[in-house]
Each structure stands twice: as C-alpha cells, then as structure tokens.
Amino acid sequence: MAGGVVISVRAVGRRKPLLDDWSIPLPPEFREGGSPLTLRDLITRIVLEEVKKFRKRQDQRRLVHVLTAREIDEGLRRGKIDSGGRDLRQKVDDQDAVATALEAFEDGLYLVLLDGQELRELDREVHLQPDSQITFLRLVMLAGG
Fold first, then answer.
1. Smallest Cα–Cα separation from 100: which of 44, 17, 22, 56?
2. Mean pLDDT within 91-119
C-alpha cells in the first residue's frame, strides 16, 4: 500500500466517470497491523487530502504561466486556455469540508464501495489492501421521490 489506494468518482446513469481516478497515500498507522480504520476515518482522510490539493492548485493559479504551444492546443481542445494570474480567494475550512462529506453520506447522497462492496456504516472498520479501489457513487434523486 506504499502507493496508496485508487479512488474513483462516478454517478448513476453516466458511463464516463465524473473525475479521473486518482490515488492517495495512507499513513502507516492505517496499514495492516496498525490502528483500525473506519469508513469515517477513510472519508476524512480523502477529504483532507483533496482540500490540500485544492489549496495547492489555488496557489499555482495565482502565478502567471507562460504556455507552450502544446498547452495552448490542449486548452483549445478543452475549451479553456488558462495561464493563471488569478487570486480567487476561495477559503475552505478543513473541518467544514469533512462535516459536509460525512453529512452527505449519512443523507444518502452518495455510496462508498470498497473493492466492489458497499460500505454502509461510518463507524464500521474497513480493511484496505495494497490494490484496493474506493468508488464514490453519486446518487441521482428522483423528482417527487
């Protein structure tokens, strides 16, 4: 598990994933023989890691970058050429982000699958393997349901 576990984000009814798969490293205490890991711990760790990445992206966007021809072509293909130089000043509180993610899970807005098996209880222990796949499956609410 030195490389971490792979995370996917999907939505019911969509073929393509909402985001590209990524992985996060897990600290040694969550490895085999270490402290027990609950779904709550796992979601918290993933959210905190993503908040850290968000802040890093924000810092990078503050700087103006000279773009290569390839980066410009790629931006044209995506529909947006971005050379940075903006300070959006978006503040994210770590604990608010974690609380929101946990509340959304409890409200049934998304499911968590670990190696294809649904995890239903936040405080139940989970067991990660070096090749574990975590999938967050966003559910679509039906009107009038």
1. 44
2. 95
